[in-house]
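Model: Ready when you are.
Researcher: Fold this.
Model:
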Amino acid sequence: MKDYSYEIKGYRDDVVGDVGMAVFRIHYSGTIRDRNFEVDSRVTMIMKKSGQSWKVAHEHWSRFPKTRKRRRLFG
């Protein structure tokens, strides 16, 4: 992988007892096997406290659909 970069937006988190949740949007891009990529996703992570550290119990990534310019049918 080359030229990897990312930007996180809209980060929120909450902790209730020994369970935590983080949600955010991420834009990431780079090159892998000489092919460029650029992705926008939303992410949800659920963490569980284990002693003095936090462990990821569940993680979900969903890509935002690519937007296409719509063709005008009239006018």
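Researcher: Now this one.
Model:
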Amino acid sequence: MGRDPFAVIADFGAYREAQAAVDAGWADPTGWLRRSLLSTARSGFFSSDRAIRTDAETIWQVSACPVTITCPLDSCAP
């Protein structure tokens, strides 16, 4: 204690409440799975590739430079 430059202790009560809600949710596997799937489904379309492509086109006005990547392990595939 003594020093709390980031004011962490000020939010500790809210943290404990949130953690209790997580613990209760985790105790219900079916509900947890449902909420997890809905959260993923509702997250919307996001892709770092899309974001980089959009920035490249709209901010930097550059075009893509295709790169071929090979892996020596490909020849070991069944």
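Researcher: Key takeaway?
Model: DSSP finds three helices and no strands in the chain.
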